[in-house]
Amino acid sequence: MGQIYGVMDEIFQFVATFKDFPPRSFPPSFNPANIMESTLDDIKTTKMLKEGLDPDQVRGALNRMIEQQISDRAPAPR
């Protein structure tokens, strides 16, 4: 059990170095959900282009619809 406390001291000392030398950037994330979302967005964009639709116009319309739904659900100011 005493060895665990010794290791914990070393970990705390290591973590304390981040105060003096913080990381410069966030590490890249390899989240499968993000990769899947990006791939699906690419597929949707390709499909829209093949159908002759402007992806930016479609996304703008969808964003306006979402904003409208959110504002409709917001409680009335008192």
Question: Quick recap of the structure?
Answer:
It contains three helices and no strands.
The N- to C-terminal Cα distance equals: 60 Å
Q: How many separate helices?
A: 3
The coarse overall form would be elongated
The pLDDT mean sits at 83
Fraction in helix: over 70%
Question: Poorly predicted ranges (pLDDT <50, ≥5 residues)?
Answer: none
Radius of gyration: 24 Å
Helix/strand structural class? mainly alpha
The SSE order reads: HHH
Count of distinct strands: 0
Strand content: under 5%
Largest sheet: none
Keywords:
single chain, 78 residues, mainly alpha, 0% strand
Textual characterization of the structure:
The protein has 78 residues and is an all-alpha fold. It has 3 helices and no strands.
Note the topology.
Elements: H1 2-20, H2 32-50, H3 55-73
